[in-house]
Amino acid sequence: EVQLLESGGGLVQPGGSLRLSCAASGFTFSSFAMSWVRQAPGKGLEWVSAISGSGTRTYYRDSAKGRFTISRDNSRNTVYLQMNSLRADDTAVYYCAKERRSEGDIDYWGQGALVTVSS
Amino acid sequence: EVVLTQSPGTLSLSPGERATLFCRASQSVSGSKLAWYQQKSGQAPRLLIFGASSRATGIPDRVSGSGSGTDFTLTISRLEPEDFAVYYCQQYSSTPLTFGGGTKVEI
């Protein structure tokens, strides 16, 4: 059974940093690209970043470039999202997601980690 | 960036009725790389359709997807109580990956 378990969410002040982790199990982790997708309170889904199975290719939405860094440790079956210079509009539930065939569509989602950016 | 516009914003229907949801892209979605997701309140999304028309594992055949280019449709032929939720389309033909704004299917 595929499981994705996020951790690291919480309350942070504007300009602060936070690192999200996502521990994966139930599939061959290194064979699949992983994404982070967020959802602001009461809003729709917004893709944030993705990383290839090997970790050599990374992708970001424009608002995340230069502030967020996605990485993975295939020996630990874990993907990370380092978020710096956080802003109020980064407040959202962040979902860790497994891509179905590393093409961008998502077949498994974590339960989500709430990140609140507020003073 | 490919902008996806979903319509209608809200669909008010009864169990047993047919639901038709639309997703229009600002430019052609190459390879029909268009997915549909269902999200219930307080839950993570669930993949329903990928490749515009292929059902994901465990999705019943009353759920179907169609379309190509810029116009896509999700149809639920006979609504069951568990189908009342928000539905999102997503294109994955180019980055940034983008989602539509969602259609709420309510009783």
Describe this structure in words.
- The complex is a heterodimer of chains A (119) and B (107).
- Chain A is an all-beta fold and 119 residues long.
- Chain A is built from no helices and eleven strands.
- The N and C termini of chain A lie far apart (40 Å).
- The mean pLDDT of chain A is 97.
- Chain B is mostly beta strands and 107 residues long.
- In chain B, 0% of the residues lie in helices and 48% in strands.
- In chain B, strands 2, 4, 5, 6, 9, 10 and 11 form a seven-stranded mixed β-sheet that branches.
In short:
The complex is a heterodimer of chains A (119) and B (107). With 119 residues, chain A is mainly beta. Chain A has no helices and eleven strands.
Largest sheet of chain A: 7 strands, mixed
Low-confidence stretches of chain B: none
- On the 0 to 100 scale, the average pLDDT of chain B is 96
Instruction: Give the oligomeric state.
Output: heterodimer
User: Mind telling me the C-alpha Rg of chain B?
Assistant: 13 Å
Overall structural class of chain B, as computed from helix and strand content, comes to mainly beta
Largest sheet of chain B: 7 strands, mixed
Q: H/E order of the elements of chain B?
A: EEEEEEEEEEE
Mean pLDDT of chain A: 97
Number of strands of chain A: 11
C-alpha termini separation of chain B = 34 Å
Structural class of chain A: mainly beta
Strand content of chain A: over 45%
- Largest interface (C-beta under 8 Å): A-B, 21 and 24 residues
